[in-house]
Write a structure and sequence with these properties.
The complex is a heterodimer of chains A (563) and B (284). In chain A, α1 (6-26) crosses α5 (105-115) and α2 packs parallel to α6. Chain A has 25 helices and no strands. In chain A, 39% of the residues are buried. Chain A has helices at residues 6-26, 28-58, 61-85, 95-98, 105-115, 120-136, 140-167, 169-173, 175-190, 192-205, 208-214, 218-221, 225-237, 241-271, 288-298, 313-330, 332-354, 363-382, 393-398, 403-433, 439-463, 474-483, 487-516, 523-551, 553-560. Chain B has one domain (25-271): P-loop containing nucleotide triphosphate hydrolases (Rossmann fold, 3-Layer(aba) Sandwich), CATH 3.40.50. In chain B, 50% of the residues are buried. Mean pLDDT of chain B is 84; it is low at 1-25. Classes of the chains: A mainly alpha (563), B alpha/beta (284).
């Protein structure tokens, strides 16, 4: 039954507006991320809108329609897929809270449609839609029909994204899917450079316009929801009003169907007991007598002489390192960071082949790029080593472990990763450039660099710890390590990177200059000196910093564990 | 023996113990927990106001107070997670803020918000905790298996903690807090969000531990549990310890008509939260 009270819609929109504003007042960092989104996102969408407008207006007749089919299909697919990867509880779209009130299905759907207007990415989409209307407005009737078609398409886009979201709610809430999506988004973000390189080459090699003109995407796409909208606009522009209205009608029916399905799926998912992510707790028979007996055994006093602080320090260091490796593997946020650090290594390895004419690809530069890649990779994993613990840092600080052992355990974990990367990279670059004579100085520079970076990382972790928000999905997870920590802290970590480079400069001078000035015999002295420098720097800095970590524990916790 | 302010030199024993790691610092004569003039200020708000508190060894001490009274803040300061604005805390005779590592070796903590390593399995977390407390490897395995068995987690021991229910998380955190056989256990709302079966198991273990000399300091909103378990109760309101004693002592201090009152009645009277009839006539 189509019962809609405008007053209720108004109040529902007021609710969404309040939540939208509160998001900024409650979380100041959101203002900065929104500014970034507007500064970088708006030009992107405006650029897409401008390019597509020009294509609709100035490309010859079949090609401009093909572009329209492609654009609407991409928008449709993106809006279907992206919410899956960036799923969070959007209070404005959270119907479960609204179901407590006497609202009709129509009121809920209409209010939800209006609510989407306050989603910032949707504003970018509106720019793309404006380009469609402006690009196809060859006359007033065509402009009006295009406007109506685009509005119906807007309903379809919102409806399908929410339908997919509601239908896969239980899967989306499962821990495994959340973990997977964080890693997928990280991989997607990282692969942008490679995709961009491949795309540019693809566009640059052939005649793009000729290819588009010859293409017949519309033959297949016209039977899809975005294709129906595009067909309606295309037929109107050709003066086939009958066909145009027919496509428009089908498009409207599809939109209504999608919205109806959305409402049905939502109602069903809200009335079904939640199973996703829930853990079945089995009832076990444990008699009280047995429990108390076992508790007594478990908590038997220690034997004389078994003081708990006499445990081997190395065991604790090693156990902490194992815990770190397990976390790098099992925690999707840390795994994403590890992958991004590996990505730096891959780019350094693949980069010279993407730009074969570059003068920097000489024997020496290629080989010495290996330790540089490892330097950045290790920096990513070590500059906020305490913040990366997130909430668990409280537990770590409650254990009676000497702070030096905590730092050494964490350093060991990162150093091993760095050394493995260094070995692979230096051997690969030597094999590719036949630079085997440079392997030793390259390894020395890498090892010294690891020592320096990890040492500097200990300083920044203790004195400039950053909050890394717990377990968010999609783009929010990848941006959380610095975005929510504030620009100043981001700048401080950038400063730390510079400091690390300055500290490393004697090593660079000692190992790279002999190659540049053809005085390789200097390596006999400079290689051991560089290694010694890296080790001594790390040990000295860590010894100095560790006691401060213990003294600053509450302050570090206040910064890193605040939610 | 470690002494306290106003008695004798505190640092002498601690320094001596640091030089001889085999020696336990904790003195058998020192109170299990002692807080003196503990203050914590957040901006304009005094969350904890000159709190003085002494808990003797083997006591089961219940720490009560309405929401926002300062219970969790006090516990955080006692375990070394939140720096007091002023004042001192000793656990087992060790100054928590001067010698945190040694103090932490004497205590087990179950915080209100469980910040445990969710990406480790239950068994892995216990083994990790055991190593962090410096227990020999053989003992860690045995104790971990015993605790998993007792707390009915053995079937889920190899599952990641992130997949545990709230009750299971509480139990694994409790197991980690017990694995080194602490002298003092701090529990912040241990029974919140857990089922009656788990609650019963935990209560039995805690009672058994106090009978063996362990001190339990816990905060809870569940008055029946506090009434049944605690040997002594402290009530905090607006950052100030407003009442302290056994249940009998609290009743005796109460006015005539509350001589047979329950802990809940006493608590409501002490914090001044007796319900008053509101004017909701429009409901009729």
């Amino acid at each position: 039954m189509l019962v809609i009270h405008p007053d209720k819609i108004r109040w529902l929109f007021w609710l969404r507006w309040k939540l939208f504003l509160r998001g900024f007042t409650r979380e100041k960092s959101r203002i900065i991320s929104t500014i970034f989104m507007v500064v970088f996102g708006f030009p992107l969408f405006a650029g897409i809108a401008l390019v597509t407008y020009i294509a609709y207006r100035f490309l010859p007749a079949p090609a401009n329609a093909e572009i329209l089919f492609l654009v609407l299909t991409v928008v449709y697919l993106l809006w279907m897929a992206l919410p899956l990867l960036e799923f969070t509880v959007n209070e404005g779209l959270d119907v479960s809270k609204l179901l407590l009130f006497p609202l009709t299905r129509s009121e809920l759907m209409v209010s939800l449609l209006f609510s989407t207007l306050l989603d910032i990415p949707m504003l970018g989409l509106i720019l793309v839609f404006i380009a469609v209307v402006a690009g196809w407005a060859s006359s007033l009737p065509v402009a009006l029909l295009t406007l109506v078609a685009v509005l119906i398409f807007y309903m379809q886009v919102v409806g399908i994204s929410q339908l997919v979201l509601a239908a896969l709610m239980s899967t989306l809430q499962s821990r495994r899917f959340r973990d997977l999506s964080i890693i997928l988004i990280a991989l997607f973000s990282m692969s942008c450079y490679l995709i961009q390189q491949l795309l540019l080459r693809g566009i640059g090699t052939g005649d793009f316009v000729t290819n588009i003109e010859r293409a017949r995407f519309s033959l297949y796409l016209q039977w899809t929801p975005p294709g129906m909208t595009a067909s309606a606009i295309q037929q109107a522009s050709l003066g086939n009003w009958g066909a145009s209205f027919a496509w428009l009608g089908v498009s409207l029916v599809t939109a209504v169907l999608v919205l109806y399905l959305w409402a049905r799926v939502l109602e069903r998912s809200l009335s079904t007991p939640e199973v996703g992510g829930a853990v079945r707790v089995r009832q076990r028979k444990a008699s009280r007598a047995a429990a108390v007996e076992a508790a007594a055994t478990a908590t038997r006093p220690r034997v004389a002489g078994g003081g708990i602080l006499e445990h081997s320090g190395f065991t604790q260091v090693f156990i902490i390192a194992i815990k770190e490796w397990k976390y790098f593997w099992r925690d999707p946020q840390l795994k994403a960071m590890l992958l991004s650090s590996l990505y730096i290594v891959i780019i350094f390895l693949v980069g010279p082949f993407l730009n074969p004419g570059d003068s920097f690809n000489s024997l020496g530069f290629l080989s010495f790029s290996a330790p540089l890649a490892v330097f950045f990779s290790v920096f990513t994993l070590s500059y906020n080593t305490l913040g990366m613990e997130r909430q668990s840092l409280t537990t770590l600080f409650l254990f009676p472990v000497k702070p030096l052992r905590i730092l050494l355990g964490k350093n060991l974990a990162v150093a091993v990763i760095g050394i493995v990367e260094l070995l692979i990279l230096s051997l690969a670059s030597a094999a590719l450039s036949h630079g085997w004579p440079l392997v030793l100085p390259v390894l020395a520079m890498g090892l010294a660099g690891i020592g320096v970076v990890i040492g500097c990382g200990n300083v920044s972790s203790v004195f400039l710890p950053q909050r890394m928000r717990q377990m968010q999905r999609g783009f929010q997870a990848t941006g959380s390590s610095s975005g929510n920590a504030g620009c100043i802290r981001g700048l401080m970590s950038f400063l730390m990177l510079g400091v690390s480079l300055v500290v490393l400069s004697p090593v660079i001078v000692a190992l790279f200059f002999p190659l540049y000035f053809h005085i390789r015999w200097v390596w006999v002295f400079s290689i051991p000196a560089a290694l010694l420098y890296g080790i001594v720097f790390h040990q000295l800095v860590t010894w100095l910093v560790a006691p401060r970590m213990l003294a600053r524990a509450p302050e570090i916790l206040e910064i890193t564990t605040r939610e | 023996m470690t002494t306290f302010p106003g008695e004798a030199n505190t640092s002498a024993t601690t320094n001596q113990a640091l030089q001889h790691p085999h020696m336990e610092v904790s003195s058998s004569n020192a109170p299990a927990i002692m807080a003196r003039d503990l203050v914590r200020v957040f901006g304009q708000k005094m969350a904890v106001n000159h709190l003085n508190l002494t808990v003797q060894r083997g006591e089961f001490y219940g720490f009560l107070g309405p929401n926002g009274a300062g219970k969790s803040t006090t516990i955080k300061m006692m375990v070394g997670l939140l720096r007091p604005t002023s004042g001192s805390v000793w656990v087992g005779g060790v100054d928590v803020w001067k010698d945190p590592i040694r103090a932490h070796s004497l205590m087990g903590v179950l915080p209100e918000v469980l910040n445990i390593y969710e990406r480790l399995s239950g068994r892995e977390f216990l083994v990790f905790a055991g190593h962090m407390y410096g227990i020999p490897a053989g003992d860690i395995r045995r104790r971990a298996e015993d605790l998993l068995q007792v707390l009915t987690l053995i079937d889920d021991a190899d599952k990641l903690i992130v997949d545990y229910s709230v009750g299971m998380r509480k139990k694994i955190a409790l197991a980690a807090a017990l694995i080194h056989r602490p002298e003092v256990i701090f529990l912040d709302e241990p029974f919140e969000g857990i089922d009656p079966i788990s609650s019963r198991v935990i209560r039995d273990i805690l009672r058994e531990l106090t009978q063996r000399g362990t001190t339990v300091f816990f905060s809870s909103h569940i008055m029946e549990v506090v009434e049944r378990l605690c040997t002594r109760v402290g009530i905090i309101n607006q950052g100030t310890l407003v009442a302290e004693g056994t249940l009998q002592e609290l009743r005796e201090r109460a006015s005539g008509e509350e001589k047979d009152a329950t802990l809940e009645d006493l608590f409501l009277t002490i914090v001044g939260a007796r319900s008053e009839h509101q004017n909701l006539s429009w409901l009729e």
